[in-house]
Design a protein that fits this description.
Length: about 350
């Protein structure tokens, strides 16, 4: 081995000029830059040790393409490591910029996502309400059709030739039909009120749960720490898009009024939700939620008004028929009494 080569071999790995990858204390221990610096620092020490052992070896003369001294080799190796380090910094900076850009896009899309999810919930609940109420109304419709057929039979049997006993039997049968019809109308009204109450409570509960999940998602949305060195042109954008302020308590959803008294003002609400942030996304969720509540309440009150009007109309029509039927029975009874009087007179 040439003296000039061996002269470059000395145990000086601890010199500051060779320790170019000392871990930076200000970096977070589990961050990507910290992990990368740790790997490069370890690689630097290992390569220095291997190089020192190599240049102290007696077999050095067999390698013709290696640098002549340890210092030359260390400088060449560390330049490569520094190049890797710079590439990683560039990659990290680009990745941060892309993450911030994607998060900005996501934050802009979240309001429309909240609108879609809340709208879908509202439509499902509205469709379920109409379907359930439609089933109850269809059942009453079948009952009304059957009752109307029975009524026609009774009307056809109401003849002048009926004797007193047959007239009483027919009258009792028709009055029983009227009572059953009255009961069916009232029962259907109660069932529809139950449908409204249950669906209204389910809508409010489901919407409150969905709102809480959306707000929680916004709270937990990742926020990259963008420094001036990493992405200086994005710092202002993050603040503008987020418009983030401190924590906030969002009021709950008012429960819908009872179907029995829809004009009553309700004060009970679902539980309030507290978030650690307040952004445009949070505000959009609450805005969409409140709009959905107003629309569903309009549907709710419309259905209440419809079922109340239907009940009044049917009961009014039934009462008109009851009055008419009683007049018919009275007329037939009077006719029978008059006929019996004439018969008795002629007999005597």
């Amino acid at each position: 081995m040439a003296p000039s080569v061996r002269r470059g071999c000395r145990s000086n790995m601890t010199e500051r000029r060779f320790q170019v990858y000392t871990p930076e204390p200000e970096l977070k221990p589990h961050s990507f830059p910290s992990a990368l610096n740790s790997v490069l620092w370890t690689a630097n020490n290992i390569l220095l040790q291997v190089a020192e052992d190599f240049y102290q070896s007696e077999r050095l003369s067999r390698f013709l393409l290696v640098p002549d001294s340890f210092d030359q080799w260390a400088e060449s190796m560390q330049q490569r490591l520094l190049g890797y380090h710079e590439q990683s910094r560039t990659l990290l900076r680009t990745s941060r910029e892309e993450v911030v850009s994607q998060l900005s896009v996501l934050e802009e899309l979240l309001p429309s996502l909240a609108a879609v999810l809340i709208s879908n919930l509202e439509q499902r609940q509205g469709a379920g309400l109409r379907e359930e109420m439609g089933g109850v109304r269809l059942k009453l419709k079948d009952t009304l059709v059957a009752s109307e057929k029975e009524k026609r039979v009774n009307v056809r049997q109401l003849r002048v030739s009926l004797r007193d006993e047959d007239l009483q039997t027919l009258s009792s049968r028709e009055e029983l039909r009227q009572q059953r019809l009255h009961g069916n109308i009232c029962t259907e009204h109660l069932e529809l009120q139950v449908c409204l109450r249950v669906r209204g409570e389910e809508f409010v509960t489901s919407l409150a749960s969905l709102t809480e999940h959306l707000l929680s998602h916004l709270d937990n949305q990742p926020r990259p720490e963008v420094t001036e060195a990493a992405a200086p042109h994005l710092r202002s954008d993050v603040g503008t898009v987020g418009m983030e302020t401190s924590s906030r308590v969002w009021p709950g959803i008012p429960h819908l009024p009872a179907p029995e008294s829809p004009s009553t003002v309700t004060t009970a609400t679902t539980a309030a939700t507290t978030t650690s942030r307040c952004t445009l996304g949070h505000l959009a969720v609450i805005e969409q939620r409140d709009a959905a509540v107003k629309r569903f309440e309009q549907l709710f009150r419309s259905e209440v008004s419809l079922l109340d009007n239907d009940q009044r109309r049917r009961l009014s029509e039934l009462q008109i028929w009851i009055t008419h039927w009683r007049q018919q029975i009275h007329t037939h009874t009077h006719t029978l009494e008059t006929a019996d009087t004439h018969t008795n007179t002629h007999t005597h």
